[in-house]
Request: fold
Amino acid sequence: MSSLFATYIRSNLDFVRGEGAYLFTRDNESYLDFFSGIGVNIFGYNDEDLVSTLKSAANRVWHISNLYHIEEQEKLAKNLCLNSFAESVFFNNSGAEAVECAIKTARRFFYDRGEKNKTNIICFKGAFHGRTLGTIAAGGNKNYLEGFGEPLSGFRHIEGGNIELVEQIIDENIAAILIEPIQGEGGVRVFTDEFLRELREISRKNNILLILDEVQCGFGRTGKLFAHQWADIEPDIMAVAKGIGSGFPLGACLAKKNIAKSMVPGTHGSTYGGNPLACAIGNKVLEKILAPDFLPHVRKSSTYLHQQLQQLMQKFPHLILEVRGRGLMAGLKITPPVNEFVQSLRKNRLLTVGAGENVLRLLPPLIISENHIDEAINIMDKIFAKFAKRAK
Ligand SMILES: Cc1ncc(COP(=O)(O)O)c(C=O)c1O
Reply:
């Protein structure tokens, strides 16, 4: 009997080591990883550079708190700013914390300017921003809010993709629009570049901040460092996590300087956020993503993956209704129950994860090759064929 909270339905597979895109059980059975610990391990397992970075960081100071200068943290903040819209960074340990910081920063910005009623945030149905009390309110999913008292107020939920709905809901109390450029948990739902540009435009016109949650779709996942760069826009605030630490807990809230400057001593904090170990890894991750060949490799693999998924859909039109996603954040809207499908794939040594709207979500490590994609497609093909037989 486990001594853990029963918040997860866990498989009893027990992975003890990993190598590249494969995980190995205690009995040395190998599994192809197409979920990366839910979009985290972008360099797969046992990456030589990350392992040696962590080992050498472990020989220095592990933790000192944010009451002291942390060289690695300063460096990571500077490099994130050099490579994004941002001018200022707050580090924390997870995606939910990064979004919390983003929400607080937006509210505090208007508070500081004397616009104290400007606290409301427009959010989108199907969104997922984390599991803290603030982020479940922002997500608005009733199942996640149930049983936890009055939700934090100030979040207005509308259907995404339609700028007119956004226009209709804007009033003088709206402080920000919060959106995942691609909804991950919600079902790998991609918002168009045009919609993101419209949001940028409408927020600018109405004195509203644009907050992007790139916790899942950021850090190279779509073939650019950040997903919003496809739309050629700049947000005011952005939350990131997952890939930035590639398995070491690290998140960050990035913002323009004039917005971040409201977050003065006492407004926010984190004991661990941006600690030397996490930031040493973050720096190495960023350096590796920005190496000249890396993102082109992700884009090439993405094109190949999407071509293969399209072919699979043509082969099983009754089982696959839609291929979704961008880059190596892909989804198949399927007709068989997705949890059962994920389990069947797992039995055949392919690890994936479900998402909303009965979507099979594929989040492979960004280092995958065409051979890995072929292997995954063959396994999926086999399982779809099984389900097709069953449907007859
Ligand atoms: C878009 C998005 N935001 C926030 C979160 C929350 O991140 P964490 O679980 O690290 O708190 C997630 C996690 O899946 C996510 O996908």
